[in-house]
Amino acid sequence: MKAVSFLFVTNLKQNRYLLLVWVIVLAGLFGAMAFYFNSLFGTQAEIDSIGETMRSPAMVSMFGAFPAEQFKTTAGLLSGMLTVFMGIFMIILNIQLAVNGTRKQEDSGLLELVRSRAVARRAPTSAAILLLIVTNGLLGFLYFGLLQLANLQDANLGGNSLFAALLASAGLMFGLLTVLLAQIANDTRQTYLLSYLIFGVCYLIRMLTDVTDPNLSWFSPLGWLTKAEIYVGNRWLPVLLLLVVTIICGSLALVLVGHRDLDRGLLPERRGRKHGGILLKNPLGLILQMERNMIIGWGIGMLVLGAAYGSVFNSIGDILKINPTYEQVLGVDALHTANEMIILNYVNLLAIIFCLLAVVCGGMILYNLKKHEEKGYLEIIHAKAVSRSKLFFSYYSVAVLAGLICLAAAVLGMALAGRFTLDQAIDQGYFWQTLGVNSLVVITFLSLAAFLVGILPKLISLLWGYLMMGFIGCYFLPLLDFSDNWRKISPLGWTDKVPVGSLSRHWFILMILLTVSLTIVGMIGYNKRDIQGGI
Q: Model pTM greater than 0.70?
């Protein structure tokens, strides 16, 4: 127990900045929304208006299917908007913490030093689990306290408690699931891949079932978040289910960690080829070879995600047909035009999600330049006649390629699924327009990542914060009737809602200038700075 306590404190120190940023951002966002809701949706007319919007298929696919009664109160609206949204962020945080405390320590050799002392085999894993429990417990307590202080209309103590416990238990469940996967996978990258793969599958099942048949959402842990009936029925069954899965995953992880070798997982390792291919003759080919599995995995995942969203186009486009009066007033042709506009607005919203994920994929590859420096992988390359500019450009090129493949796969999946599901197909040119404009958005973000890697490698996490700010400004704040200017805080909002609108010339020029200048400055900075250092 003493070893677990010591390792827990050590893990806490190692992750203190990560935890500090996440706790401030999550608690700040949650609290700001809770305090803002009373003034935003104080009257029944305002509540009914936004509640109707939240019950539309487009909003259901993104925020979840909740009982109609939950959207009849201010407190119920808050829970409907934030449950799945905050749950996703809690899951991402827990996956990161779980990997940092388990597989990442093994790959870095830190755990080998710990094991050389008189430390039980399960102590490091137990310390990682304890950190997850404390982190989620703290966030749950903060959420509960903020809800109590916000004093939302129609809120109650049971609903506040359930809301906080639901978010904390969802994060903890995926955290312990990642700890279990860390025992099965062979390295950090494989652990991340398996964790996010399961997370993505759970999200897709939740999205598809919520739109088609909400009763089937019980097949996804993310679907359980919508079944709690917060502030209405206050059902604790989803929390209980999440905790049961958490206990099972934690117990299995502790059992498996005692039955495997250090730096080895339970999955079989594939033997490499005896001879290297032609790609290994230059840095660009080497990096492409190293990242190819990641690019393929992300590409397939984005294709499936786009197809899943495109498969609900028919439900979203036919929303006007729910009321026969619309058809009589507008006429068949006008009704089709109105349906098409609804779908195109939905495509614009989906493009924001696709861009965000494409930037994450490309950014991870580009940031490997820093990680590979720290691990000493690049020392052999630096010893050869390879310029830093060529090495930098190789990482940047593969990152851009990966980001564009992800975006193209998502748009392709969306377009194909929409074509097969819609009774009257929409012009495919809209999808090409969406792909072209948002490709520029992805490249602009990756150029910012290149600038940070070259000039400020210790502050590369700024990209993720800026990306998240832009996502919230485009995806969430318009729903709350914020000024449209909030969309402009990042390139995600500079596209003027393509394909509904068109990209203006000044935004196009600005993105081109930023892309070129940030990339060049980043390359110059990388040439001038010390390895593992900054300017």
A: yes
